[in-house]
Design brief:
Length: about 180
């Protein structure tokens, strides 16, 4: 029970800070998600070498931190990809797809244990699949050239007013 508390505490403490971090203009949300998933895959792969309870508690806390970062970045990246008009259906589809491994994962890990007599193989597989998903994220910009536009502060539409004899003319330009 304490391990789940460590995971929850890690997730709880990082979320406000990582949300503020992702709002910074020079931070790439996609890169931060890739880095987070990379660290999750490495941590998951290292679970079999934990030899005592303290190391498992440390793992649970660190995994909670990274899970909090992952959960904060997902909606923001989906919004960057699909825009506000399609956000609700995209998030619904994303969370539906994420529920598949969360539902099937424990059964698959049990099957792997039954066939190999070791949970290490299950952790290696989980870390490997997370690494594959990280590599898959590298292809996102290739499918959509402008998938991550610059932040609003950098690309704001600036409205210039010019006064002429007929009144004020409004022009929109992009910085």
């Amino acid at each position: 029970m304490f391990l789940v508390s460590c995971l929850g505490f890690g997730s709880l403490t990082i979320r406000p800070f990582f949300g503020k971090f992702l709002d910074l203009a020079r931070v790439s949300r996609l890169t931060s998600l890739q880095f987070t998933l990379l660290l999750i895959s490495v941590l998951t792969t290292l679970v079999p070498i934990t030899t005592n309870y303290e190391w498992l508690a440390t793992y649970a806390f660190l995994y909670g931190l990274l899970e909090g970062c992952f959960l904060i970045s997902l909606p923001l990246i989906v919004q960057d990809l699909v825009g506000d008009s399609k956000l609700t259906s995209a998030l619904g589809t994303l969370y539906c797809l994420l529920s598949i491994p969360k539902t099937a994962g424990p059964s698959i890990a049990g099957w792997i244990y039954d066939t190999s007599d070791s949970y290490a193989v299950a952790f290696f597989c989980a870390g490997g699949f997370t690494m594959i998903s990280t590599c898959t994220l590298l292809m996102v910009p290739l499918f959509r050239a402008n998938s991550f536009p610059k932040r609003k502060e950098l690309v704001d539409l600036v409205v210039h007013s010019e006064y002429n004899n007929k009144g004020i003319t409004v022009k929109e330009t992009c910085l």
